[in-house]
């Protein structure tokens, strides 16, 4: 053992030091012991000299140990549905609804009119049906869960027909074949990667319990391709007496074509096509909390609702409150476009984006060398995968620090600002920044440059 390791103090000795012992006024002893052990372990493996102020070293470790791991950040990347940053920010009404039920008791499973037990599945079913044109609706914890539940309830033990071109992998390396297997179904691929015909489905109907379409929401096939229309698949399934399931993904409820966003099917269109069940996410283009929504024929939704797996996939009171409040905004599409942050960001016009970028650049310290330049935002979240939304970026010259180092300082600052680096410049996109946050972003850049 070298002299450096011999000089390491014991945990007990450090706990008796006045500066360390004083920290007991802030945290329980068990937490402080963890911080002391972490400080000693860090000193043991470091090549740097031992700390001169062990109380400060322990306090640093204590700060890391007690800091929240889930914190808010400012998204300056221009990716609206940034999966790593929590996807859709919630509308103020949804936040208020969550706070209202989280702070006390609520009618989660209580029927006030009858004075008896109610069903949590009732809270969003009416709005889901009303807004999509479906007979019934059900909310579960996420879209993958909705697909698992539908397959298990309607096709377990049997074959499910799906085009080979739809055997996609979604976020977190979850693959459609694995979801089918977990649901107790057998996968039957039809067609080829680029061309699948209605006759391909017809030939495999013998053992089929369901036909499944999975919308390719995070990539696009171009060129020599063929895919049957949903209406044709719905009619084929009806003739065979089996359900047609349509996994839509993004949960788009309004038409965004006037804003240059085309090619993403809307939920109402999927229901109108004749699909027996349509599944989609709550936290993508819908702009609500993480949830999986099922809408369609009432008897099939009811089978999903009564399946034992539905309890394992059920949503909590906060999610239901936020989803209900978000859905209610869609009763007036103009209100939805204005108040749901995802929709408001996606529909920001070029002039407004230029104004925001100019304002942000003007707030920057002179050391930032801030300039504005044309650029593109992204929808993200596996929606409109090829869409490029024109925007105006604010470019920061990182100087000798370098773009990656400045980006690291910004994301580790307070508030954390997540940016992108392009051609050595740190770029900020005002599309995904709340206008009231611009001064804080500029201050964060000034602090990071210092």
**What is the arithmetic mean of pLDDT?**
92
Report the major sheet.
7 strands, mixed
- Could you name the ranges where pLDDT drops below 50 across 5 or more consecutive residues? none
Structurally, the number of domains stands at 3
CATH class wording of the largest domain: Alpha Beta
What is the helix fraction of residues, given as a range? Answer: 40-55%
Task: Walk me through what this model shows.
This protein is α/β, with parallel strands linked by helices and 450 residues long. It folds into 3 domains: 57 residues; 116 residues, Aspartate Aminotransferase, domain 1; 248 residues, 3-Layer(aba) Sandwich (Aspartate Aminotransferase, domain 2), CATH 3.40.640.10. It is built from 20 helices and 18 strands. A 7-stranded mixed beta sheet has the order 5-13-12-11-10-6-9. The longest helix has 17 residues.
């Amino acid at each position: 053992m070298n002299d450096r390791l011999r000089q390491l103090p014991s945990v007990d000795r450090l706990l008796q030091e006045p500066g360390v012992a004083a920290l007991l006024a802030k945290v329980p002893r068990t937490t402080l012991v963890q911080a002391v052990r972490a400080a000693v372990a860090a000193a043991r493996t470091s090549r740097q000299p031992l700390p001169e102020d062990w109380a400060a070293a322990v306090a640093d470790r204590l700060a890391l140990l007690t800091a929240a791991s889930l914190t808010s950040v400012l998204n300056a990347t221009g990716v609206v549905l940034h999966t790593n940053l929590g996807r859709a920010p919630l509308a103020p009404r949804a936040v208020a609804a969550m706070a209202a039920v989280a702070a006390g008791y609520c009618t989660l499973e209580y029927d006030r009119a009858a004075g008896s037990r109610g069903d949590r599945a009732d809270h969003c079913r009416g709005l889901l049906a009303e807004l999509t044109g479906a007979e019934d609706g059900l909310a579960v914890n996420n879209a993958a869960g909705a697909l698992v539940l539908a397959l298990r309830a309607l096709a377990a033990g049997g074959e499910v027909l799906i085009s080979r071109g739809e055997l996609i992998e979604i976020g977190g390396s979850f693959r459609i074949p694995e979801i089918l297997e977990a649901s107790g179904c057998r996968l039957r691929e039809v067609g080829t990667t680029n061309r699948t015909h209605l006759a391909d489905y017809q030939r495999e109907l013998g053992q089929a319990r369901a036909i499944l379409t999975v919308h390719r929401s995070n990539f696009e096939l171009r060129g020599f391709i063929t895919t049957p229309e949903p209406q044709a698949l719905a009619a084929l399934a009806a003739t065979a007496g089996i359900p047609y399931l349509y996994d839509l993904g993004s949960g788009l409820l309004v038409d965004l074509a006037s804003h240059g966003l085309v090619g993403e099917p809307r939920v109402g269109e999927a229901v109108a096509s004749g699909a027996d069940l349509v599944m989609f996410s709550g936290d993508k283009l819908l702009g609500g909390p993480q949830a999986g929504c099922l809408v369609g024929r009432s008897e099939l939704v009811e089978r999903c609702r009564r399946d034992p797996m539905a309890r394992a996939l059920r949503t909590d009171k906060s999610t239901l409150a936020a989803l209900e409040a978000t859905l209610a905004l869609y009763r007036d599409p103009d209100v939805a476009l204005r108040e749901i942050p995802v929709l408001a960001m996606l529909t920001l016009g070029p002039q407004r984006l230029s104004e925001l970028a100019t304002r942000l650049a003007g707030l920057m310290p002179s050391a930032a060398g801030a300039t504005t330049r044309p650029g593109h935002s992204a929808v993200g979240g596996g929606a409109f995968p090829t869409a490029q939304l024109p925007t105006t970026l604010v470019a920061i010259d990182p100087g000798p620090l370098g773009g990656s180092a400045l980006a690291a300082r910004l994301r580790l600052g307070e508030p954390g600002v997540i940016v992108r680096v392009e051609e050595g410049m740190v770029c900020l996109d005002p599309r995904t920044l709340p206008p009231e946050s611009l001064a804080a972003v500029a201050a964060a850049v000034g602090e990071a440059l210092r």
